Amino acid sequence: MLVIVKDNHDDMSKEAARIVADRLRAKPNLVLGLATGSSPLGLYAELIRMHREEGLDFSKVTTFNLDEYVGLPPEHVQSYHAFMNKHLFSHINVDPRYVHLPLGTAKDIGAFCQCYEQRIADCGGIDLQILGIGANGHIAFNEPGSSLGSRTRIKTLAGTTRLANAGFFKSSDEIPKYAITMGVGTIMEAKEIVLLATGFGKAEAVKAAVEGPITASCPASMIQMHRQVFVVVDRDAASGLTGLYNDTWDSDAP
Asked: Which of 9, 46, 138, 236 is catalytic?
């Protein structure tokens, strides 16, 4: 695990983008796992800039998103389909045929989840997975108590997670109660992981994930078992850490 501490969200986002761009240039047909939420927004903005100004090519990239709300159609303004189109896909040259997101309106969610897992396997697995982290230590929608070996499935959202999402919906009744999410086990099979966190509100979760015991009470703590993880955080999110960590990553290093 390499913990990279940057001064602020912008620097954190640029550092994460360097990692993604390095892997993409080395492997143009990269299989990229993507996240939603506020944490990766700066990363996506920097990747868009690299595409426009430096010619970073996404034409052969295959993407798999972590999750989607159950019951929201892709065209719903608060769906993660809409989020990804707004903040990344509509600004880069990704081929829509290679874009995969969970379908929250699937008639048979169990069968869809099995199919989603198979699609990932058919692509050779995820090369690089982008993750955020919830204040309660969740990754994707794997809430505390989730099996650390779980696969893509439907999950009931914790009250704290629904509260955190309340600002995106007109009323509490509209906040989805369920989501389709990649499992912790699925995420851990990615060849590399980049976990992003910003702000004091994530400091406790970051400390638990990086330095705490590996426990289902903090699903993100499972990253301690992964062979290649970049934890890219700003100084506020890193404020609870007690260890000494690297503050940079050299793209030319082996």
From this structure: 138
Q: Which of 15, 117, 127, 143 is catalytic?
A: 143
User: Would you tell me which CATH number, out of the four given (3.40.50.1360, 1.20.1440.130, 3.30.420.40, 2.30.30.140), belongs to the domain 18-187?
Assistant: 3.40.50.1360
Residue 251 pLDDT level (bands cut at 50, 70, 90): very low
| Catalytic site includes residue 138 | yes
Interacting residues of 43 by C-beta distance below 8 A, sequence separation 6+ = 13, 16, 17, 20, 130, 196
Catalytic annotation present for 143? yes
Q: What share of the chain is helix, strand, coil (3-state, %, to 5)?
A: 40, 20, 45
Given the residues 15, 46, 67, 68, select the one marked as catalytic: 67
Q: Please give the model's pTM, rounded to 2 decimal places.
A: 0.93
Q: What is the mean pLDDT of residues 80-100?
A: 98
Domain boundaries, the chain: 18-187
What strands, in cross-sheet order, belong to the sheet with 62-65?
Answer: 2-6, 229-234, 192-197, 128-131, 31-34, 62-65, 99-100
Told to judge if 68 belongs to the known catalytic residues of this protein, a careful annotator would answer: no
- Write down the catalytic residue from 136, 142, 234, 236: 136
